[in-house]
Amino acid sequence: MSQLEDLKNFIDSMQPDFEKFYTRGQNAAGTRLRKDLQELRKKAQEFRNEIQQERITRKAAKSS
Using one digit for the tens of pLDDT, what is the confidence trace for 46-57? Predict the structure, then answer.
């Protein structure tokens, strides 16, 4: 469950740059947002892989 919390906290940490980009028009904040979104994508993919591994493990244990 901690990975879900990590993802939520990571998204929350993007809030200041989101506001700076969309309300104040700071282009540098947009660059940081894009970088953070790429990192979020990587974290989400790792989370997905762990979920898939858990499913495979459960299925193997169930069929044994």
Answer: 999 999 999 999
